[in-house]
Design brief:
Strand content of chain A: 25-35%
Largest sheet of chain B: 12 strands, mixed
Distance between the termini of chain A: 25 Å
Shape of chain B: elongated
Number of strands of chain B: 12
Number of helices of chain A: 8
Number of helices of chain B: 15
Number of domains of chain B: 2
Distance between the termini of chain B: 27 Å
Order of helices and strands of chain A: EEEHEEHEHHHEHEHEEH
Strand content of chain B: 15-25%
Number of strands of chain A: 10
Helix content of chain A: 25-40%
Radius of gyration of chain A: 18 Å
Oligomer: heterodimer
Largest interface: A-B, 26 and 24 residues
Helix content of chain B: 40-55%
Strand order of the largest sheet of chain A: 6-7-8-3-9-10
């Protein structure tokens, strides 16, 4: 199992005012699954995604990622997990604006401690894979939205993560570019990557093979999507 | 994370905010430049002073009625004024009895003479020195043309002079001065020699005096000092046989003079003995205060600049909260962020430091443009300056960097 979550609770707020964003959520994701997490705003899907991404620790419950218990890890250990096991794709791309495309993509490798020559090779390959080999020296503000998101995907992939976490990856893109990005994710899934997609758009969620619906901090439904039905048919 | 990467990131951040970085640097530059400028200035003066004060030979010391430095107060002045003058007889006693010394000279100085040869005349600002044949070696000012005065000249009181290079140039632009008769203060003297040229940056003029036998001097000008009143006092220069014997010679000379001048066993010396070293030391002591002052001002400026650095780094951390979040999300550890922001502060300070050192060297050497002072580049102060900048960067960059490193990844990432 890639993800094994049991009874995850996340409580926000202090003193008397407490908000339970997640109430005893249990979830498993196997290798090479393509899962969409859906739900209206306030349903807890962002919270769940942050916990899956090891950006935020759960208040209680256990979470193991590839057999490793991450729910009790310290901040620097979590940084290492994020660096080596998780690739993030954000709605707002989250690239460093004053660094060029190449540097953005090699950054996770720098934090991992990879040598200059190896970094160059891996980052160039990743940029080639997303079709941006000719834009390496450009800075993010000089690129279109779709290009920026592809840079972010290249950055997410350089450390060969066990899990690709995409949070509304098409939210800031027009529909044509959006579907380009979605088919890129489809290809990555076909290559063997495990993908978790957070979205509120049913159309995007249809790319996934399994759809988890959250409501008020609990899992409302967990079903195989029509895409899977179509493919298996 | 590797240091080189953190350094590159720091440089990138500084370049991205050029104007802000430059303004922050002004404080650092001012602080470092003020220290370096004063230290360079002092070192310029010092190296020249040392050279010029080293008129005495390395094995020579001087005995005088008046001390080399100034007086601490009026009481000191009066006490010294009451000292008996040092006499030619004192010098003769030292010459005879101090076995560790080979050359003992006696000199009396007088200012305000004029020398003339035919129609040529000098200004009335000449020094006249009544001395002995030991004068040139003991004062390392040698006779270049002709010959020195002799013991015979002193014993007989001949009217012969050795003239300074500048006097020779003024009075004898076209002919050989040796053997010519000049008039000094109206009296006739035969020129027997010309001193070598000895330029001076400090204003003391070593090319503008003439040397005559001390006996001749006393016969003409008398024992009474026209200006200070009282009897003229002799400057005695004593040369030890070898460098190892300088201290012994000083002690022997002291003993002979105390006996000769009737100083009681409990009384302090009624004369002053000094060497080049002791003179240079007292000059260095005088500049110590200026150095400390400049250092304190520089440190205060650097602390103020450091607070500026801290301020700008705090702004920078707040501004780049999102960036910190991104870095943490993709795997930056606390120390990676800490190192990045700390290096940014240190690099910023050191860029200022290097510019400050360069500006300081420039300012400190300005004086050499208008004078004969030698240019000085005290590299040890450059090292100290840059080290201080590193410390300032480290000290004032630490808090903002710690603050940045402690940001929770999710909070930083969702910061707008």
């Amino acid at each position: 199992m890639t993800i094994e979550m049991t009874d995850i609770v996340k409580t926000y707020g202090m003193n008397s005012v407490e908000v339970q964003a997640l109430r005893r959520v249990s979830l498993s994701v196997a290798k090479n699954e393509y899962v969409a997490i859906m739900g209206p705003s306030g349903s807890g899907k962002s919270t769940l995604m942050n916990i899956i991404g090891c950006l935020d620790p759960p208040t209680s419950g256990s979470y193991s990622l590839e057999g490793e218990d991450v729910s009790t890890m310290k901040e620097d250990q979590l940084a290492e997990v994020r660096n080596q096991k998780i690739g993030f794709v954000f709605q707002t791309f989250n690239l460093i604006a004053r660094s060029n495309v190449f540097h953005n993509v090699e950054l996770p490798l720098i934090y991992k401690g990879v040598s200059v020559a190896k970094r160059r090779k891996i980052a160039e390959e990743a940029l080639e894979a997303v079709g941006l080999a000719d834009r390496m020296k450009h800075k993010p503000p000089e690129l279109s939205g779709g290009e920026r998101q592809r840079v972010a995907i290249a950055r997410a992939l350089v450390n060969k993560p066990s899990l690709l976490l995409a949070d509304e990856p098409t939210g800031n893109l027009d529909s044509t570019t959006g579907s380009e990005i979605m088919s890129l994710l489809d290809d990555l899934h076909a290559d063997g990557n495990t993908i978790i997609l957070v979205t509120h758009e049913p159309e995007m969620a249809r790319h996934a093979h399994r759809i988890i619906r959250l409501k008020d901090g609990v899992i409302e439904s967990d079903t195989a999507s029509s895409a899977r039905a179509k493919r298996t048919a | 994370m590797i240091w080189i990467e953190a350094f590159k990131m720091a440089m990138g951040a500084i370049r991205a905010h050029k104007l802000r970085s430059c303004l922050t640097l002004v404080g650092i530059i001012a602080g470092v430049a003020s220290i370096i400028a004063v230290m360079t200035g002092i070192s310029v003066i010092q190296s020249t002073m040392e050279q010029e004060m080293s008129v005495l030979g390395s094995t020579t010391f001087q005995v005088q009625k008046w001390p080399a430095g100034g007086f601490n107060n009026n009481a000191d002045f009066r006490k010294i004024q009451q000292r008996k003058p040092i006499t030619v007889a004192n010098a003769n006693a030292v010459r005879e009895r101090v076995k560790t010394a080979d050359l003992v000279g006696a000199e009396i100085w007088r200012f305000g003479s004029t020398a003339k040869f035919k129609d040529e005349s000098t200004n009335s600002n000449l020094w006249i020195c009544g001395g002995t044949r030991e004068y040139p070696p003991n004062n390392t000012h040698y006779v270049e043309f002709g010959k020195n005065i002799t013991d015979e000249d002193v014993r007989v009181g001949r009217k012969v002079v050795v003239i300074g290079y500048q006097i020779a140039e003024t009075l004898f632009p076209f002919i050989d001065p040796i053997g010519q008769v000049i008039r000094a203060d109206g009296r006739k003297f035969t020129v027997v020699g010309v001193f070598e040229e000895k330029k001076s940056a400090m204003g003391g003029n070593f090319d503008n005096y003439l040397l005559m036998p001390v006996s001749t001097f006393l016969r003409i000008y008398g024992m009474r000092d026209e200006r200070r009143g009282g009897e003229r006092s002799v400057n005695m220069t004593v040369n030890a046989i070898s460098p190892e014997l300088v201290d012994a010679a000083i002690e022997e000379t002291r003993a002979v003079l105390r006996l000769e001048r009737g100083v009681g066993p409990r009384e302090e010396d009624d004369f002053t003995i000094f060497t080049n070293d002791s003179q240079i030391r007292s000059f260095n002591q005088a500049t110590e205060g200026v150095k400390i002052g400049a250092f304190v001002i520089g440190i205060v400026a650097l602390v103020v600049a450091g607070i500026g650095i801290m301020n700008i780094m705090l702004v920078s951390v707040t501004e780049r909260t999102k960036e910190i979040g991104i870095r943490k999300a993709i795997g930056a550890k606390r120390r990676d962020i800490l190192l990045q922001f700390l290096l940014e502060a240190i690099v910023l300070c050191n860029v200022g430091g290097v510019i400050g050192v360069a500006v300081g060297f420039g300012l400190g050497n300005i004086i050499t443009l208008f004078t004969d002072f030698a240019v000085s580049v005290p590299m040890n102060w450059a090292v100290i300056g840059v080290t201080f900048c590193t410390i300032v960067g480290l000290t004032f960059g630490l808090w903002p960097a710690v603050k940045a490193s402690k940001l929770a990844p999710i909070d930083a990432l969702s910061y707008e």
